[in-house]
Amino acid sequence: MALELAAVYRDLHAHPELSFQEHRTAGIVADHLGSLGYAVTTGIGITGVVGVLANGDGPTVLLRADMDALPVLEETGLDYASTARGVDADGNDVPLMHACGHDVHVTCLLGAAEALADASGEWAGTLVVLFQPAEEWGGGAERMVEDGLYDRIPKPDVVLGQHVAPFPAGFAGLHAGVAMAAADSIDITLHGSGGHGSRPETTVDPVYLAANVVARLQGIVAREIAPADSAVVTVGQLHAGTKNNIIPPSAKLGLSVRTLDDAVRDAVIAGIERITRAEATASDAPKEPEFDYVERFPLTVNEPAATARTFAALQAALGEGRVIDPGSVSGSEDVGVLATAAGAPLVYWFLGGFDPTLFPDLLRTGRMPEDVPSNHSPHFAPMIEPTLTSGVRALVAAAREWLA
Ligand code: ZN
Ligand code: ZN
C-alpha cells in the first residue's frame, strides 16, 4: 500500500518524542520498512532503526534521517500541532515539539524507501535506510556506532542525508567542504573552599575564581585565534552559592564552543583547559578543576567530489537553479559520525521547507529574510507540500546517482 506522506507527517508531528525516547516513531518506521520488504533491525543505539534492501551487486548507499523532537511548547496554531508532554533526562516534565523538522526527515525517508523498493528493477546494489535517535542531544549517531552498527549492517560507500531549513520549498542547499560547525558543550566545576563571607582569608573563593575564568576565556578568540579563522566561546551558565554571607565551596560554568576547523577547535579547547587550570592555581584552589564534555558535535564536512556528483543529481531532480550553495552554517549535526565510522564520504544538504513567496530577494540578492521562523522556534512550521515531495525526490535522486 502506498504511503500517504502528508498523513504520516501530520501523525508524526502531533506525536513528538525526546532524544532516545523515540519508541513510537521507531515502531512506525519498523512496520513500514517491514511491509516494504526491507530487512529491519531495531534497537541499535536504544531506538535506532535500520532497513536494508539487498538488490544485487553494486555499491552500498546509506540514507539517514533523525527522529527526535525538542522540549519546546508549540505555538504554530496548526490543526495538527503537538500538545504532547514528556519527561526529559533530568526528570523534568516538558512540552514537546518537532521544532527542528525531524518529522519531515522521517516522512521523506519512508517515502524514498518505498519509491526505491518499487523501482528495484531499475537499480542494483544495497540500500540502507537509517533512522537515528538523539541528534539534538548529539549522541545518537555515536551511540549507534558504539552499538555495533557496522557489524550488523553493510558498511556504506557513501552516506547521504538532508535537513529541512528556512528557505524556499522545492529548493535544496548544498555546500562542499565544511558545511556545518563543530559544537562542544563543556561543563566546568571549579573547586574552592567555603566559609563565612566575613572571613575570606580562611577560604578559597570559587566565585572570584569563576569570574576571572569567564573574563580570561574571552581572550582565546580575541588573542589566540588568527583573524582569518573563527570561533565562538560562550559561557551560558555560571552557578555558585546560596546566600550573600556564605563563600561557597565550588562554582560551575557551562560553555558552548563553535568552530569551523579541527585545528582551531583543538586550540580553543586546549586554551579553555589551560586558562581554567592556571586560574585555579592562581587562586590556590585545593583541587584541580573538572571538565565534563557533555555534547560533542564534529564538523560536518561534505566530501568535495561526492558533493559535486550529488549536486548535479539534485539539480536534475529539483530543476535548474533550484540547488543553491548556502556556504558554511554555524549550526551543528552528528551525521558525520556515521560517515567517519564507515570511512565513507558524506553528502548532507538542506531541504527548503517554506512558502517561496516569503523569499522574494533570495535569488536576486542571496539574502535570507529574518522573519521566517528558524529551526527550534515555537513557530517553526514547514509547509507540507511541496516540501515532502521534494524531499523524497531529492533522496531518491541522490541514492540513484550512487546505486548501479
Ligand atoms: Zn535541531
Ligand atoms: Zn535538526
Largest sheet: 8 strands, mixed
The residue ranges in which pLDDT falls below 50 over 5 or more consecutive positions are none
Distance between the termini: 26 Å
Described by the principal axes of the CA atoms, the overall outline is elongated
CATH architecture call of the largest domain: 3-Layer(aba) Sandwich
What does this structure look like?
The chain is an alpha+beta fold. The chain has two domains: 5-180 and 299-402, 3-Layer(aba) Sandwich (Aminopeptidase); 182-296, Alpha-Beta Plaits (2-Layer Sandwich), CATH 3.30.70. Helix content is 33%, strand content 27%. The protein is built from eleven helices and 18 strands. The strands form five sheets. An eight-stranded mixed beta sheet has the order 1-2-6-3-7-18-8-17, with helices on both faces. α1 packs antiparallel against α3 (102-118), α6 (206-224) runs antiparallel to α7 and α8 packs across α11. The radius of gyration is 23 Å and the shape is elongated. The model has no long low-confidence stretch (mean pLDDT 95). Bound molecules: zinc ion (2 copies). One zinc ion is lined by residues 100, 136, 375-376.
Summarize the entry for a quick read.
The chain is an alpha+beta fold and 404 residues long. Helix content is 33%, strand content 27%.
